Queue: 4 jobs
Job 1
Amino acid sequence: MEEVGLEFDVEEVLLIEEDSTKKFELICDSKSLSNVESQLGKAGFSILQSEIEFRAVHPIDCPEAEAPKIQKLYEMLQEDEQVRQIFDNITPDE
């Protein structure tokens, strides 16, 4: 799959094993998504899901004491009908 990823100009290929089945997650530039999806289909691959997802480039640590405040903010955002999805770059402080 990594060779296919290189051929289709994919940035990263991840192997995901769930319920004893293997799947691959291909990460590409959002502008290339449609082209990569088309090429994979033409090559005979089954596409289970295709979407643009924002990923944190620079994650930040969150002190455990701040977690309740962040959770409350998430809850407030989820109550707003205009909010469809929430993305952040916070990693829990361990």
Job 2
Amino acid sequence: MTKHIQLSFTVLVIFSIFVLGVVGNEYKCSEVLFRKSKCDYQECGLMCVLKRQGLSSCTKQGRFFICSCQYQCP
């Protein structure tokens, strides 16, 4: 009984790692869309969807905000 539970747990862990690895590799490439003193999240998201159909993010680097787009590599 104990070995059956241990085997089931091991299979569950291996399956979870495999699924997370596949989902985690979905968006690999990224591109900087613009650098401004203020980041407009709607503009950043719209540009990313129109240009690459990916996920956008605004991050602050020094004095500027950088709008970047993560998308699936071709």
Job 3
Amino acid sequence: MALRKIALLLKPDKEIDHQGNHVIVKTLSTFRNYILEFDVGVEFEEDLRIVDGRKCQTIVTWEEEQLVCVQKGEVPNRGWRHWLEGEKLYLEGKQERKTKALGRGERGGNRGASWAPGYKSDECP
């Protein structure tokens, strides 16, 4: 719980560098750094053990002006979108919620995949 509270206080810097179809995305903070390197349109194994302890097959593509990531693994339909509006970088996440069998009298929550609302990351240089 304390780790989550610390993570919510962080304001990481995001650096995105691309040369043709090769992209490097660096998420840098005082707590933890994560570097993602890939070729657009080519599936690769992403090692997310530093983030949440898992590995998955990932593909990142361009959809209009947005960089779109789809991760295949233990959590289906997971991924993110990045895009620029002016000097602001936006990130939107997607994750399919796990479902469970409900007992008598229990209520179910939202199910299925959905995109989280976009939020503003740090201003781009």
Job 4
Amino acid sequence: MKCCMFVAVALMSLLITLASIEAAGECGRMPINQAAASLSPCLPATKNQRGKVQPVCCAKVGALIRTNPRCLCAVMLSPLAKKAGINPGIAIGVPKRCNIRNRPAGKRCGRYIVP
């Protein structure tokens, strides 16, 4: 009887632990849509390669690269970015256009390579 009680308690503990774990995606615990929304000041720069990149955009991109560089790639390739008309080939160059030194240069982002 004690053995069955122990197994039941252990099983309940395991189920509670599994239920409390949140799946982390490319952007960690931040939903990708929230990460994309934080980069909204960059929208004009992702559509026109010759367009000026706003300082607020550079600050947001720099912060995201420091905290989670894979998230930036995930945002650029997301369905939300596609709906917003973002050109990934142009968007991939925003960190360079911002003169961000610690950008993941040479890393792949889908079929693109970070300049």
